Amino acid sequence: MTYRLGVDVGGTFTDILLIDEDTGQTYRAKTSSTPEDQSIGVLRGIERACTAAGVPMFEIGEVFHGTTVATNAILEGKGARVGLVTTDGFRQVLQIARSFVPGGLAGWIIWPKPEPLAALEDTVEVRGRIGAQGDVVTELDEDDVRAKLRTLKQRGIEALSVSLINSYTNPDHEHRVGELAAEELPDVPVSLSSSVLPELREYERTITTVANAAVQPQVARYVANLEAQLRKSGVDGRLCILRSDGGLVSAAVAADSPVNLLLSGPAGGVTGATWVAEQAGYPDFLTFDMGGTSTDVALVQGLTPRVGRETTVGDLKVRATSVDVRTVGAGGGSIAHVPQLTQALRVGPQSAGASPGPAAYAAGGTQPTVTDANVVLGYLPTELAGGEITLDREAARAAVKPIADATALESVEAAAAGIVDIVNENMFGALRLVSVQQGFDPRDFALVAFGGAGPLHANALGKLTGAWPVIIPPSPGVLCAYGDATTNLRDEAVRTLVRRFSELTDDSLQELLTDLAAKARATLAEQDVAEEDQRIVYSVDLRYHGQGFEIPVPVDLDTFDGNGAGVAALRAAFDAEHQRLFSFVLEAEQELVTARATAHGPKPEVAAPELEAGDEDPRQALRTHSSIWVEGAEMTAGIYDRALLRAGNVVTGPAIVTEMDSTTLVLPGHAATVHRSGSLLIRPVDHPDSRES
Questions:
Q1: Is the dihedral of CA 313, 523, 300, 7 positive or negative?
Q2: Residue of 71, 84, 256, 70 whose CA lies nearest to 161
Q3: Would 302 be classed as within a structural domain?
Q4: Of the N and C termini of the chain, which has fewer Cβ atoms inside 10 Å?
Q5: Do 544 and 620 belong together in one domain?
Q6: Of the residues 552, 576, 600, which one is the last residue of a structural domain?
Q7: Is residue 570 part of a domain?
Q8: pLDDT tens, position by position, 559-602
Q9: Residues 265 and 66: beta-carbon distance below 8 Å
Q10: Quick one: CA torsion of 521, 523, 524, 527, rounded to 10 degrees?
Q11: Alpha-carbon distance 182 to 376, whole Å?
Q12: Is-contact 62 4, C-beta < 8 A?
């Protein structure tokens, strides 16, 4: 037998999923995250999963890991001290930045501008200049470079970034600076913009390179430490890290280019949701991943997640390909409060996190959280994570009671219901960002809900969005880990080439894309992926001539006939996408800015599990009944054990379905049908497909 392991580290929990590749059988483990050293929680979870499966750790062939190390380094301001080498005259490129201020009216008055990742005193200019067409305007002054590097050494920098003007057209000067840095700063990791982001726009290229340098030492240490701990524990399998675009890279590649890992965790959830939705037969869906600290949402069409060219973490926005995930500070640990100024109930974005956690955890937390509200309403059982966490209902009530007192609500239950309603609206707003704001009607999509807290709120989000069915995957609390274990190796090659369409031909564009494909293939070949097992996907970033932004458009090389059909197809596709996004097209000529080729390794052959068939009656899974507070009144709900449900069973609300890593709430007037793949499909009882299995 061969086993693969998915690992996802969140802000509150670390999720482990061990998969038998031959049978598709899974074994789960969920343990508290260890922010001081994430590898501690990872190893603890792996040991538990292997114990549950009765599998020795040396039988694990591959470990696939979604990590938040790079993300946390940025959010917590714990990145390395970065030195920046730029071209003479461009020292303040990070300070000038872009003239964009977030927030509403008067945001420019009250917005505190974040400090650049590379301080001005740690930024140096060197003499030498590359022209816009790649020609050498001024030769690189190597003596000047050495002197500036020695200055940075004296300042005690921990990582070096090099971003010279127009280096995306000719990287020779940057490569030489890198060679000199290896001599002058032998123990300092170096990030070159021509390697990190060989694209147009000096600020975006520079900030992305600096961000890569800032997190590189920490990510490299973490990856090396995790590999060492795995080997020490007997795991000899290959370690791969999930990229922000949902693909995998080797641990070594991840350590070199950590800027591509900033959305590693959320990308795993979208990948896992795609696997589950495919089994259930729904290619178009929204994802809703609610954890302990935040909620991530995304849109998937035709089993293909929408991919963006920018990644945003906190105040930092870099140019790195990532799944288009939107995040809101709404999770099970989000804290409810009533500001004295407005006396209006608010929820989040502050979170109780894993420590001390919600009051119901009885670990020192006293502030009211979403989890406490769910406990008060009776939606959560007294044990979570397979018994690792026991909930204290009286502590939850004591935490929520001040909210009831501050808002003059008639009961603690009413205050808890208000907390849940508000957090649901916050998450509904995030779902609208990836659907309505992007020109999609959420009613045309299913809704895949996962994460430890997602299934509790999923039915309510289905009502708000009109997205049916609401799909609750098997093991929803560890779906991100499932996504890590069921995706493939991936790498991309990029080149900026600003050309109007009148300057392009099918042959020239096809030659460019083929060259990029060869570069992307080579990276996968180094990771032992045979060329015949690779799949190449092409795309280009297009705009109207004169525009200041681009739109990514996929490229189908089969349309290229050498007579202009390929370029014509791109023109039509771009106009259609521009119309969908902005409701108009221009008469201006189209222009290509950047081309990219992405190499995909083969998807893992993991057998899909199938439940034993049953009838509509789920009585064999009914364990007890319990009182819950819903729709302003107390009702009696059936409590079901999900492990005992069979394909075709229909659980009618109000009901609660429990399992090791999550809890699903089925509201009155709705029913959850058990699909043969193991997913629960929740719909209104009068929905035409409410009996589908």
A1: negative
A2: 84
A3: no
A4: N
A5: no
A6: 600
A7: yes
A8: 888 888 999 999 999 999 999 888 899 999 999 999 999 999 88
A9: yes
A10: 150
A11: 60
A12: yes
Task: Establish if 249 belongs to a structural domain.
Answer: no
Residue 444 within a domain: no
3-state SS class at 258: helix
Name, in order, each residue with C-beta under 8 angstroms of 26's C-beta and a sequence gap of 6 or more.
17, 18, 19, 20, 474, 475, 482, 609
Distance CA 669, CA 224 (A): 52
**Is the predicted pLDDT of residue 47 greater than 50, yes or no?**
yes
Q: Counting Cβ atoms within 10 Å, is residue 464 exposed (0-12), middle (13-18) or buried (19+)? A: middle
- Residue 233 binned pLDDT confidence (cut-offs 50, 70, 90): confident
Residue 122 near residue 155 (C-beta atoms within 8 A): yes
Beta bridge partners of 651: 672
Q: Specify whether 564 is located in the same domain as 618.
A: no
Q: Is 266 exposed, middle or buried (0-12, 13-18, 19+ CB in 10 A)?
A: buried
Is 597 in contact with 493 (CB distance < 8 Å)?
Answer: yes
The full length of the chain comes to 693
Q: Report the pLDDT averaged over residues 671-693.
A: 84
What is the DSSP secondary-structure string of 58-114?
GGEEEEEEE--HHHHHHHTT-PPPEEEEEETT-TTHHHH--S---SSTTHHHH--PP
Residue in the structure block whose two tokens are 């869906």: 285
In a shared domain, residues 496 and 371: no
Q: What's the pLDDT band for 693 if we cut at 50, 70, 90?
A: very low
Q: Give the range of the structural domain holding residue 369, as residue numbers without chain letter.
A: 338-424
- Contact present, 245 and 486 (Cβ < 8 Å): no
Could you tell me the pTM of the whole model? 0.81
Strands (E) across 368-476 are located at: 383-384, 389-390, 446-450, 470-472
302 CB-contact burial (10 Å; exposed 0-12 / middle 13-18 / buried 19+): exposed
| pLDDT score at 74 | 85
Q: What total of structural domains would you count in the chain?
A: 4
Question: Closest by alpha carbon to 22, among 53, 52, 47, 51?
Answer: 53
Closest residue by Cα to residue 70 from 254, 202, 195: 254
Q: Name the token pair of 73.
A: 């380094």
Place of tokens 């300070």: 95
- The position carrying tokens 């035409």 is 688
- Helix H or strand E segment including 55: none
* Same domain (yes/no): 142, 206: yes
Residues 572 and 622 in one domain: no
Are 419 and 540 within one domain? no
Give exposure, 597-625, as e/b (b: 16+ Cβ within 10 Å): bbbbbeeeebeebebeebeeebeebeeee
Tell me what pLDDT residue 247 has: 86
Q: Which residues contact 51 (CB under 8 A, 6 or more apart)?
A: none
Q: For residue 544, what are the CA distances in angstroms to 144, 159, 585, 596? A: 41, 38, 9, 19
Domain boundary among 377, 400, 424: 424
DSSP secondary structure string for all residues of 488-541: -BEEEEEEEEEEEGGG--HHHHHHHHHHHHHHHHHHHHHTT--GGG-EEEEEEE
Give pLDDT tens digits for 464-476.
999 999 999 988 8
Percent of the chain residues past pLDDT 90, beyond the cut: 51
Comparing 680 with 24, the larger pLDDT belongs to 680
Q: Are 141 and 128 in contact (CB under 8 A)?
A: yes
Does one domain contain both 544 and 632? no
- pLDDT at residue 626 is higher than 50: yes
Say how many C-beta atoms besides its own lie within 10 A of residue 280's C-beta.
21
CB 411 within 8 A of CB 418: no
Distance set, CA 28 to CA 45, 240, 384, 555 (Å): 9, 19, 13, 40
